[in-house]
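Hey, I'm writing a tutorial for new members on how sequence and structure tokens pair up, and I'd like a real worked example in the thread rather than a made-up one. If someone can provide the structure for the chain below, I'll link this post from the tutorial.
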Amino acid sequence: MDILEIKDLEKLAQKKVPKMFFDYVNSGSWTETTYRENVTDFSQIKLRQRIAVNMSNRKLQSKMAGIEVSMPVALAPTGLTGMQHADGEILAAQAAEEFGVPFTLSTMSVCSIEEVAKHTKKPFWFQLYVMRDKKFMARLIDRAKQAGCSALVLTLDLQIMGQRHKDIQNGLSTPPKLSPKHLYQVLTRPSWCLKMLQTKNRYFGNIVGHVDEITDVRSLASWTSEQFDPQLDWKEIDWIKKRWGGKLILKGILDSEDAIIASKTGADAIIVSNHGGRQLDGAPSSIKVLPEIVDAVGKKIEVHIDGGIRSGQDVVKALCLGAKGVYIGRAFLYGLGALGKFGVFKSLDIIKNELDKTMAFCGRRDVEDLNRENIYKEHPISNY
């Protein structure tokens, strides 16, 4: 099978990953309207093709939150990455490191901060959820500092969990339950099953062994479901920022008023995001609100985006509309589920190639020169 685009990796991942975990990645909340529009709204944006311009010596290198990157793309924090492929977070972090882009480890990862740090050479980023257990949160921040993480990504849009019908129907759990349905799903993916049996990383590694009340899978599930803090407000950011003391990125901004508040916190960047369409169904796509947020705060704070990125052309469109960095989630997860570490590297390579060529067709040689002048604006057809 020739792998030419992210869609090819998605098809292969579906054949290799048990249904409950593939569906976890490949779905959104309620009617999945926002989840779908995250992708389809990119197709509504057209680019200006320019000709007879010098396309040699193109440059994709840039910075995200002051950190050098080989292209302005990072791997987004994704929960249960280690259930797409055994040791998934480690493999994805290694691929990102070799490619020269940031990897962001989720609080709800299968491999722990320490495990990922042990198997990588360069600093990665860590994503933090605000939880009720502040002592656990403080320890988590300290563990990220001790592991040498170079940025903290604070997620602000998960005070309560959006309802995701497929996860409920599948009875999703980590590790899988021992029911006939789950056993069937696992056993029909023998390669996945064999690799999973060979690793010790099968639980939420950042939680198991770090919370006294957790003694088994049932208590882990109960603790986790009750931990997201519905009382989260902007005041929480101050103590987290002080405790962390390093680069801070705020994730989950989808409104210009919130962006203005976020720009005053002292954070280094914000991420325009609707949690991949997994929280408020009916909210606008990330790319649709990006321009107004850039207009509101782009001169005060660095603006990044995630949600719906499936190609290098999507990256170009986001950069043209003012984003300084773009995060991929599902795109690299498809690669991971399909081909492990090589698949993650392949997903990045596909996006880099598409980004490079699209930028050239738009008449730009430096990725940092992309702007709204590269967006095609439709004009009414004159009467002849």
